[in-house]
């Protein structure tokens, strides 16, 4: 399974370590709340709102180097817009791996 | 060249600010987490370029553009691949960046911005839909039971379409008039009235509050259609 990494962040940082630290700090602060909101909306069966949350989370997956995860999020977002969620477990596993990754940094 | 960044996601703003820092003579003047705060800023500040997120909770990027009279150059930023065609219907939109944005793609976008000589008029946003009209009339006369009844504009709360009739609600009385909303609108001063829904025209000065997709006037909750909301927001004197 694809794992979160710092490739994208390092690429845009262009050797600026302070930017890497700053961006990771922002992601650490922002990601848990976004995940919580997605789960709340999903649990409330507010699938259209959950789809919007996945849309935002998709960018975080991209920032953490998850290109396959990004594609998965696109499919899952489309599913949710239609009230379906067969990709829920896969997507949430990705989110778990992202949280573990940023917490271990 | 100066620019602002509008994005509800802090990580996206941080990335964009960093990328802008890689370009000589491109200054990020301000960042905004929502479109409303940017609208207030733009009333008092001239900006050359806006990096604009398409998906925001209160206002979409397109809604925001519709509120601008003389939009500067705009680069859309989004995680959605499906809006490229719609984006280029706006002359002010120079480019469309898919997140996560890479440095080479960003620099290419800046090149496009520098090359683009934007014509000052944008059909979609410059249509004189609401320029104050110097209408000398302060009232109109409507035919009710073979009498011509004077109704002063400033006393009207709202006008509602009801089939072949319109209901004119005023401070003193309600009038049912055999007419269409379209005909009535032609008589109303644009500086005071705004059509906020296919069935409703409101007196803007009578608004008590606005919540999501509705407006409260006296005791009436009036729906605001999505397409009319940007114009309404533009007409308000937002703090």
From TrEMBL, chain A:
Coiled coil (UniProt feature): none
Annotated signal peptide: none
Domain HPt: 16-105
Keyword field contains Lipoprotein: no
Biological process annotations from GO: phosphorelay signal transduction system
One GO MF term attached to the UniProt entry: protein kinase activity
Listed Pfam families: Hpt (PF01627)
Keywords, comma-separated and alphabetical: Kinase, Phosphoprotein, Transferase
Highest taxon listed in the record's lineage: Bacteria
Keyword Kinase: yes
Modified residues (Phosphohistidine): 55
InterPro entries linked to this entry: HPT_dom_sf (IPR036641), Sig_transdc_His_kin_Hpt_dom (IPR008207)
Protein name: Histidine kinase
Organism, as annotated: Nonlabens dokdonensis
Automatic annotation (TrEMBL), chain B:
Superkingdom field: Bacteria
Keywords for this protein: DNA-binding, Phosphoprotein
Matches recorded under PROSITE patterns: HTH_LYTTR, RESPONSE_REGULATORY
Response regulatory domain residues: 2-114
Keyword Flavoprotein: no
Residue positions, PTM 4-aspartylphosphate: 53
Single GO MF annotation: DNA binding
Domain annotation HTH LytTR-type: ranges: 140-238
InterPro entries: CheY-like_superfamily, LytR-like, LytTR_DNA-bd_dom, Sig_transdc_resp-reg_receiver
Stored PANTHER family: STAGE 0 SPORULATION PROTEIN A HOMOLOG (PTHR37299:SF1), TRANSCRIPTIONAL REGULATOR-RELATED (PTHR37299)
Name of the molecule in the record: DNA-binding response regulator
């Amino acid at each position: 399974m694809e794992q979160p990494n710092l490739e994208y962040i390092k690429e845009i940082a262009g050797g600026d370590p302070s930017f890497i630290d700053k961006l990771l700090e922002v992601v650490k602060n922002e990601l848990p709340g976004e995940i919580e909101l997605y789960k709340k909306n999903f649990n409330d069966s507010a699938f259209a709102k959950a789809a919007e949350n996945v849309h935002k989370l998709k960018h975080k997956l991209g920032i953490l180097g998850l290109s396959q995860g990004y594609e998965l999020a696109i499919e899952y977002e489309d599913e949710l817009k239609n009230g379906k969620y067969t990709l829920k477990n896969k997507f949430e596993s990705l989110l778990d791996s992202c949280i573990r990754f940023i917490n271990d940094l | 060249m100066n620019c602002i960044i509008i994005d509800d996601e802090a990580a996206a703003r941080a990335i964009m600010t960093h990328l802008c820092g890689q370009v000589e003579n491109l200054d990020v003047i301000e960042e905004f987490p929502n479109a409303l705060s940017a609208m207030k800023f733009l009333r008092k500040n001239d900006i050359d370029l806006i990096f604009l997120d398409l998906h925001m909770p209160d206002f979409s990027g397109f809604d925001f553009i519709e509120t601008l009279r003389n939009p500067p150059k705009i680069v859309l930023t989004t995680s959605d691949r499906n809006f490229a065609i719609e984006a280029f219907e706006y002359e002010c939109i120079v480019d469309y960046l898919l997140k996560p944005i890479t440095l080479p793609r960003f620099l290419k976008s800046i090149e496009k911005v520098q090359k683009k000589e934007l014509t000052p008029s944008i059909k979609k946003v410059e249509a004189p839909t609401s320029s104050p009209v110097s209408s000398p009339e302060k009232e109109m006369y409507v035919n009710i039971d073979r009498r011509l009844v004077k109704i002063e504009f400033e006393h009207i709360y709202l006008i509602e379409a009801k089939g072949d009739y319109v209901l004119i609600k005023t401070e003193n009385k309600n009038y049912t008039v055999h007419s269409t909303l379209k005909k009535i609108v032609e008589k109303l001063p644009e500086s005071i009235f705004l059509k906020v829904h296919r069935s409703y025209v409101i007196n803007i000065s009578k608004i008590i509050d606005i919540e999501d997709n509705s407006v409260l006037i006296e005791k009436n909750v009036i729906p605001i259609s999505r397409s009319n909301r940007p114009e309404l927001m533009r007409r308000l004197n937002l703090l």
